[in-house]
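User: I'm putting together notes for a lab meeting next week and I want to include a structural view of one of the chains we've been expressing. I don't have a solved structure, so I'd like a prediction I can at least talk through. The sequence is below, exactly as it appears in our construct file.
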Amino acid sequence: ECAPCDELHLDILARPESREQLDRFDVVLLDIQLPDIAGTEVARRLRQLTEYQLTPILAFTAHALDEEVSDFLSAGMNDVIFKPLEAAKLDIILRWCSSAKADHISQ
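Assistant: Thanks for the context. Below is the predicted structure for the 107-residue chain, given as structure tokens.
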């Protein structure tokens, strides 16, 4: 069962200062068009870290062709979220991630 809305918490980090900051996230909403590195490369690097093997990584983009979506998934992303991100859709994503985390903890 998902946590009620008032128990969901969202932290936003544009550029982590250290690896320790990354260790606290339950889901990664990863913009594909980053200024210094491709979002797919970030996803590949995150998947190499033990603590991110099961963490949902969601590509965040304004548009994508079917081939690009395949590239995102091949890079280790779980799904694609299209901009603009509406509050109701974000709530569904956070509830899904909360539920997925609870499933992993209970196993």
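A couple of points you could mention at the meeting. The first helix runs from residue 19 to 22. The first strand starts at residue 28 and ends at 31.

User: Perfect, that's what I needed.
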